[in-house]
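New here. Invent one.

***
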Amino acid sequence: MSTTTGHRGDTVSSEQPPTGDAGVAALLERGRALATPELRAAVHRLEPPMDSVAAYHFGWLDADGRPSTAGGGKAVRPALALLSAEAAGAPPETGIPGAVAVELVHNFSLLHDDLMDGDEQRRHRDTVWKVHGPAQAILVGDALFALANEILLELGTADAGRATRRLTTASRKLIDGQAQDISYEHRERVTVEECLEMEGNKTGALLACASSIGAVLGGADDTLADTLEAYGHHLGLAFQAVDDLLGIWGDPEATGKQTWSDLRQRKKSLPVAAALAAGGPASEQLAELLAHDAKTHDLSNFDEHAFATRAALIEEAGGREWTSEEARRQHTTAIRALDGAGIPGPVREQLVALADFVVVRER
């Protein structure tokens, strides 16, 4: 049995986990366990107080700087990076630098997104800007982005250079998507096509990179890397479609965010765009309300009924159902992208299981 040493000296199996729900849980845990020691080492390079601020963001320290066991993210991206290495016939450990680099870029974006969106909670804790101030959120985010490229380039191989190019391209698209998202908040209407383009940049690009970066580090040619990237892109669109549903109708106890969180931020997410495009009385009434909202500088004095009314109109116009169907469509397209790629059977099964997990999650 292949093993490696994880955080706190635990021995973690790097063998291919089983399929099914238990297999997905094992797959996510393997990604977390193999990537976390290197992620901690990368964060340790930062100058104080950035190192402790980053550690707070990752859940390793509490607000007072004491060790914490707060839950981190879902670890989907590290799991994908390790799986993509195996898709190229390499050991999963080959993908660890890619997993760490992608996680650093992902968390750079979260730090900045929380500040730009005014989010005060993430993973059931106060966000970094709320605890340590906006300046630290910006600086630590920038530092994580720089570290991501260092981690890959320090490998000093041609494949590492190829991986870095893919990561920087994905990072630029991610930033493009965030800029689009912000600009849409103050528009009365956004088309479904515009929304899909924005979400393909904001979420799809980095998941696409995570799905291919391990394979690139393992020496895969561009044909296989591009196939895995296509899978990850459509997986990202499915992931974001589910996020959009949770952003309006998610249980705050599960998501760690306020009720109607996306409506509070004027997000023109897929359910909203689809509802506005549907036509009919509910769609027209929603359009009138959102046009009024776009001219209102502060929604903080809106009561729960106001947001519940908008959510009900989105659902009545068909935005919720359409988005659920779109998540399933993107899931199917992601799986089909793997056909004919010559990926080992057990690895393909895990990629499929991970895609299934993305469309049925509750947070």
In short: The chain has one domain: 3-159+166-360. The first helix runs from residue 20 to 44. The domain at 3-159+166-360 is CATH 1.10.600.10 (Farnesyl Diphosphate Synthase).
